[in-house]
Amino acid sequence: MKPISSAGISRRRFITVTAAALAWPTIMPSSVFGQNRPSNRINVGIIGWGMQGPSNAQAFLFEEDCQVVAACDLDRNHLQDAVDTINDHYDNTACKAFHDYRELLARDDIDAVMIAVPDHWHELVATEAARRKKDVYGEKPLARTIAEQQAIVKAVEDNKIIWQTGSWQRSVSSFHKAAEIVRNGLIGEVQRVEVGLPARNKEMTGSSPSFRPAKPPPELDYEMWIGPSQMQPYIEARIHRNWRWNYNTGGGQLMDWVGHHVDIAHWGLDFDRSGPSEIEGHGDFPPADAVWNTSPKYRIELKYPRQINMTIAGGYSDIRFGIKWIGTDGWVWLDRENFEASNPDWADYQNLPDSLRKVKLYESRNHQRNFLDCVKSRQPTIAPAQTAHCSTIPGHLGLISMLTGRKINWDVATETIHDDPEATKLLTRDYRVPWKLS
Fold first, then answer.
1. What's the pLDDT score for residue 39?
2. What is the pLDDT of residue 419?
3. What is the 3-class SS of the chain, one letter each residue?
4. Whole-number Å distance between alpha carbons of 60 and 348
5. Residue boundaries of the structural domains of the chain
């Protein structure tokens, strides 16, 4: 499919959604799209039904004050599954299917969208949603590059939309408690932070047929799927769930996890609007032309304000998976299943007692619910776009340092790299014609 203009959307009468060429009109009576819906109901569109889309959508399906009314995917099988799942839940046929995200976003009755597409599509879909005044629940990392993230933050702010990043650990009580312990000085002055992320050690021999070039399956619009990235031969092992293991479309385990664990590390440090000034990374890399070419083992050393040092690592035994803050008077470590601290009593707390909470962090216990509440109140979510941007920058800069083989000096205020033109070029990517960075 070729890119289309806004004018082209209104001229087109039908879109293809199944191999049997099922089609729905682009222009329908308002009653069909729910223009007469209850005033407090939020109409949601789903863009992306691969790995994360179904679980995110399920969370919205069970909220009584919203209704999922549209779904979009470039794989006809995924799209049909999305529409069937949603319509079966509501026991109707109200959810409509779209092949092109811009046609879904052109619907005036849609209030908000959930975006769960590969990283290389985040910026284009998110900025278009913002221009269409749709509130967005968008997956982490915020985008594939720092320049793309900057474009998303600007579009969100310029269009005054509500944004929730899928950094759902902020809505989990154990992570909230740990961040409050640190923010309230219970471990003293923080000196060091260790962030352990996954390593990918799977063999990449390419012996499986899925690692060999092939003709794209008929149900997938591969030309559109590649979108702004550089065209590559279709290889099954680097699409859908596995797109993240190739730098053309993703960022490996490093970029897949910074929006979770580094995000929480920043939360405890009060660095939601800050970042590191010096970044030095080292990584092991497969050949650049490998099907999976992202670094399976990496280590990044960062210097932050207040003389805080952070290590982000995957595949190093001395850096335990999870987040650990180390202070002058104690330490706290946790992951999604465990909590440990220098003070054993802290592990017994469901929440930090009010007597210790001079600093009280934003509370949420359901990430999708928090988003819907903020859509109604027009107040910021627990994981807004600017926060997601700052949480992910350490990963982007660490990767740039790994690729260039030298330390990066970062100006937090201007979001620029000092005196390094080669590294500066890596803040963005060239877009394949005719796609353009917003």
1. 65
2. 97
3. CCCCCHHHHHHCCEEECCCCCCEEECCCCCCCCCCCCCCCCEEEEEECCCCCHHHHHHHHHCCCCEEEEEEECCEHHHHHHHHHHHHHHHCCCCCEEECCHHHHHCCCCCCEEEECCCHHHHHHHHHHHHHCCCEEEECCCCCCCHHHHHHHHHHHHHHCCCEEECCHHHHCHHHHHHHHHHHCCCCCCEEEEEEEECCCCCCCCCCCHHHCCCCCCCCECHHHHHCCCCCCCCCHHHCHHHHHHCCCCCCHHHHHHHHHHHHHHHHHHCCCCCCCCEEEEEEECCCCCCCCCCCCEEEEEEEEHHHEEEEEEECCCCCCCEEEEEECCCEEEECCCCEEECCCHHHHCCCCCHHHCCCCCCCCCCHHHHHHHHHHHCCCCCCCHHHHHHHHHHHHHHHHHHHHCCCEEEECCCCEECCCHHHHHCCCCCCCCCCCCC
4. 32
5. 6-169, 170-205+235-358+385-425
Instruction: Using a cut of 0.85, tell me whether the model's pTM lies above it.
Output: yes
* Distance of alpha carbon 405 from alpha carbon 399, whole angstroms: 10
pLDDT digit string, tens, across residues 298-329 = 999 999 999 999 999 999 999 999 999 999 99
Cα dihedral across residues 30, 31, 37, 39: positive or negative:
positive
From residue 261, how far is each of 245, 366, 368 by CA, in Å? 19, 18, 19
The CATH number corresponding to 6-169 among 3.40.109.10, 3.40.50.720, 3.30.10.20, 3.90.1150.10 equals 3.40.50.720
Tell me the backbone φ, ψ of residue 324, rounded to 5 degrees.
-130, 125
